[in-house]
Specification:
The protein has 271 residues and is of the alpha+beta class. The chain has ten helices and twelve strands. The chain has two domains: 136 residues, Cypl, domain I (D-Maltodextrin-Binding Protein, domain 2); 107 residues, Periplasmic binding protein-like II (D-Maltodextrin-Binding Protein, domain 2), CATH 3.40.190. Helix 4 links the parallel strand 6 and strand 7. The relative contact order is 0.21.
């Protein structure tokens, strides 16, 4: 029996970008079918949350955050490729987070945020928590820096909280921030970039752990082909996709190195 695969690209699937993601998936799916693959989904799954897609036993292609993959999903998925984005803050297959404050806030340096209110999208987020923790760790030798750390549930909600004044600082991954700046310029103008976090690999595209080597190789091939397809140039530009690196770091070495660095500085938990 042919498996009932799913495909999901939830990490940057903001409503204004869904048509572009659909076009991208249609191009990928057509190439997979043309290569003889059966059970290729015709549409992206949007009825499951991002963690549920990572856990799905028939995930053909998805996108995930490296930090939870490293901490809880090791061996439960296979890495397909690392995307390259054209957003400010990206370099090759690396990205950073933008540390934002309110535009009217007079804070000038990271150290000025001591005792202020922080908001993160998720406790296991690499961009919203792990990279921010790494940036703050040298300033928090006593293991404490912020007055409070709240959880918003998304980068958009974190940015909104800072702009509205219910929080003072957040780290927004630079791809999300570039999209939000284009889609909601009124929100972006209420924020100011205070600093940038260290860099780490962009959010990897993944497949289920059960995916065989032949399918994995095919997925990598079609990703590279689609990224070079000039008929998709406008779609890729809208998604800020500049290409793929088909040999991702399955050890998650950099995100775990940043975790260890913060712990060694006495700042094992963002607080």
């Amino acid at each position: 029996m042919t498996p009932e695969f799913i495909a999901a690209l939830p990490m940057y699937d903001f409503p204004p970008l869904r048509e572009a993601h659909d076009r991208l998936w249609s191009a990928l799916a057509a190439r997979l079918v043309a290569a003889g693959m059966r059970g290729v989904p015709t549409t992206l799954t949007r009825t499951l949350d991002h963690v549920a897609t990572w856990r799905h036993p028939e995930l053909l292609l998805g996108q995930a955050c490296e930090y939870p993959l490293a901490k809880r999903f090791a061996g439960r998925v296979r890495l397909v490729a690392t995307p390259r984005y054209s957003a400010p803050g990206c370099e090759g297959a690396l990205y950073r987070s933008v540390i934002v404050v309110r535009a009217a806030d007079d804070v000038r340096e990271l150290r000025d945020l001591r005792g202020r209110r922080c908001v993160i999208n998720e406790p296991e987020s690499n961009s919203g928590m792990n990279l921010l923790r790494a940036a703050i760790a040298p300033l928090a030798p006593d293991g404490r820096f912020f007055d409070s750390v709240a959880v918003s549930g998304s980068h958009l909600a974190s940015a909104t909280a800072v702009a509205a004044g219910s929080a003072d600082v957040a780290a927004i991954d630079c791809v999300s921030f570039a999209h939000l700046s284009r889609m909601q310029p009124e929100l972006a103008t209420g924020l100011r970039t205070l600093a940038w976090t260290p860099a780490s690999p962009c959010l990897p595209w993944i497949t289920a752990a059960s995916t065989d080597d032949g399918t994995l190789g095919l997925l990598r091939t079609v990703l590279v082909e689609v990224a070079a397809d000039q008929t998709l140039a406008a779609t890729l530009s809208q998604l800020l996709l500049a290409g793929f690196s088909p040999e991702p770091d399955g050890s998650f070495g950099e995100v775990l190195r940043l975790e260890r660095m913060a712990a060694a500085a006495g700042y094992g938990m963002l607080a």
